[in-house]
Amino acid sequence: MIYETVESYTPYHLRYAPDDKGGEKTTILSKNDPEETIDGDGRGLLCRKCRWFVTSENEQIAVQGSHRHTFANPHGIVFEIGCFRSASGCGSSGPLTAEWSWFKDFSWLMAHCRRCMVHLGWQYVSPAGETFFGLIMDQLVWEKENGIKNDG
């Protein structure tokens, strides 16, 4: 059985941030209401590559006793991941598989940035339909740390 990610239709607002070189401003999208502060909603996590909104700190959850986990895949590549209830900036693709799952009773499929398609982690799904995202922390940046102000 293949599961699809259900998209949230939260309205997005344009916001601006300096590019990596401190030059021209780059347009990014954020789901935060421009009238609210980032601190009130929780800081956003953005794709490190394209600065697309992925999720917020309010979506952090503990799975199997912890929010953060460090795992190695079968090729010996080590990932530090954070667990999130939802990640509206992620798309999921590929076959759902239980092979090499890092979480007992959960199958997984790849999660990628909806904007630039870079690999951001995995979406986990249980037989009962529970779902969460395990996102690679090195692939994300905190919204507030990038000087992005929530001022519309």
Offer a quick outline of the entry.
Helices cover 3% and strands 41% of the residues. The chain has one helix at 38-41, and strands at 13-18, 25-30, 44-47, 53-56, 68-72, 78-84, 90-97, 107-113, 119-125, 131-136, 140-142. It has a 6-stranded antiparallel sheet, with no helix packed on it. A 3-stranded antiparallel sheet has the order 4-3-11, with no helix packed on it. A two-stranded antiparallel sheet has the order 1-2.
Properties at a glance:
152 residues; mainly beta; Metal Binding Protein, Guanine Nucleotide Exchange Factor, Chain A; 6-stranded antiparallel β-sheet; 3-stranded antiparallel β-sheet; 11 strands; disordered C terminus
How would you describe what is shown here?
- It is built from one helix and eleven strands, in the order E-E-H-E-E-E-E-E-E-E-E-E.
- The protein has one helix spanning 38-41, and strands at 13-18, 25-30, 44-47, 53-56, 68-72, 78-84, 90-97, 107-113, 119-125, 131-136, 140-142.
- A hairpin with a 6-residue loop joins strand 1 (13-18) and strand 2 (25-30).
Outline the fold blueprint.
Layout: E1 13-18, E2 25-30, H1 38-41, E3 44-47, E4 53-56, E5 68-72, E6 78-84, E7 90-97, E8 107-113, E9 119-125, E10 131-136, E11 140-142
Antiparallel strand pairs: 1-2, 3-4, 3-11, 5-6, 6-10, 7-8, 8-9, 9-10
Number of strands: 11
Which stretches are poorly predicted, pLDDT < 50 over at least 5 residues? Answer: 1-19, 23-40, 148-152
Q: How large, in whole angstroms, is the Cα Rg?
A: 16 Å
Beta-strand percent range: 35-45%
How many discrete structural domains? 1
Structural class: mainly beta
> What is the assigned CATH homologous superfamily?
Peptide methionine sulfoxide reductase
The CATH class is identified as: Mainly Beta
CATH architectural label? Beta Complex
Strand order of the largest sheet: 5-6-10-9-8-7
Largest sheet: 6 strands, antiparallel
- Average residue pLDDT: 77
Would you tell me which CATH topology applies?
Metal Binding Protein, Guanine Nucleotide Exchange Factor, Chain A
Distance between the termini: 42 Å
Order of helices and strands: EEHEEEEEEEEE
Helix content: under 10%
Count of separate DSSP helical elements:
1
